[in-house]
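DM between two lab members

TW: hey, do you still have the TPT-domain-containing protein entry open?
JB: yeah, one sec
JB: this one, 570 aa:
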Amino acid sequence: MSDEKARSSVEASRDTALPVLPTVNPDAQKSAPEPPSFHPAVYIATWITLSSSTIVFNKYILDTAKFHYPIFLTTWHLVFATVMTQILARFTTILDSRKKVPMTGRVYLRAIVPIGIFFSMSLICGNQAYLYLSVAFIQMLKATMPVAVLITTWALGVSPVNLKTLGNVSFIVIGVVIASMGEIQFVMVGFLFQCAGIAFEAVRLVMVQRLLSGADFKMDPLVSLYYYAPACAVINGCILLFTELPAMTMADIDRVGMFTLLANASVAFLLNVSVVFLIGKTSSLVLTLSGVLKDILLVFASMFLFKDPVTPLQAFGYAIALGGLVYYKLGGEKLKEYLGQGSMKWQELGHSRPVLRKLMVFAAVVIGMFLVLGSLGPRYAPDSTNQVYNGIGKLIEVPKSTNPYVKLLVRLYKFLARRTDAAFNKTVLRRLMMSKTNRPPVSISKIVANAANKHSAKTHEGKTIVIVGTVTDDNRMLELPKLSVAALRFTASARARIEKAGGECLTIDEVATRSPTGSNTLLLRGPKNAREAFKHFGFGPHSHKKPYVESKGRKFERARGRRRSRGFKV
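TW: and the structure you got?
JB:
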């Protein structure tokens, strides 16, 4: 018994005195953060997708869908964000970090409201720019944001002037200037709106740094939206009452659709949620580098979705701007460090998975060639590009005609159809896209008959008659009134008779100069089935189609049906 007590006491003393092997600590295991359920690439891809979708969605609604009310769209986004953040704050734990922010009424009025004013103006000017500029050019201009923030901090005295930093950001300015010089569809009003939006956003960021610089006021994007959205919604609503709301009707909203507006606001709100998860699962550095990748992908997406032209000069300037942006964000030492780490990872991948590495190189080369050729092909080899597009399933809509004048007219009326609400431009563009068979000729007698409207010869007096096709003469008509006719082509006799009667023969591009919206015009087209060949189209008995015969003489049998004749056979 005594031996057992001694043995137990020795074991107890050995357990307390001697060192033991390391074991898992249950407390440490409980407090350790849980590993991410998804790979970081999933969060990066989600953020890039939502960010690009928001920009493309806004461009579609404001430009393609002809909903020219950017202030209303911004206000709708902020109202939706206000409602959703209030719901998340009351029924979820996503916004629990807001309780750590010492927000009072005095702080809200002196900090949040002034910042919200500049935030609202930044959003309004940014959306206004989509009415005038392409998505690709807007993304190129947004690369100057660090430069604007730096100049604003110097102007407001937040930080001292540093010439070395100014030299670093000068590459961004040079690149954007080169890209602006290469812009084809440059519109000064849109350029000024985008510059104003960048300036307001820079002032907002500096005010956040100045007024909310304490550690207690550090907020993630979703908490910031929780505080800023109500104030910005009220500010935008007041501006909306005196600007766009008096001109809006329910027909404008119905044309876009309530579901489209709801989906647009949902995508914009989910973008803020994805930023929180991206920073929480990775870091702010990953967000910066992902933003550069997103801008590049968005430029290429706008080229294919909206047919935005990007010249080689623009691509060169944008590459300089992006290089300067990455160097400014990371610095020379960090950039060398990350390049070295990336080189080591690339070599390790080559040793562990050589096949995967080769596939990645091949995919990068193919995608690069596709993007480069897709951007330069329509400019330098349009015919070959059209053949490729038609061969792979008509990825873009191209005119059937190979006439260079018709192709130039298509580009002209694409621009007019996009910039105006006139149905005239859309109809002319649609007819220019058609084949020659679907652009039948119209005789001057048909023009006079349609212009007179069968009731009054003065019904369309003074209007320009537009025909996307050929105008031919009609000898049966002895007297021709004074007409103003625009067409793709006039026969020599038709042109002579119209001008002799005191009228004028115009081209389609002259109509665009005189009447960009198609006002004071009459659009006509000829009968498509009036050609002689249409009388022979079709087959089978009782189809009432005219047979082809070699001669109309009496010695040739002209019977129809199943017989050994030179007539029509089935």
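TW: got it. Residues 4-33, 392-396 have pLDDT under 50 and may be disordered. The first strand starts at residue 442 and ends at 443.
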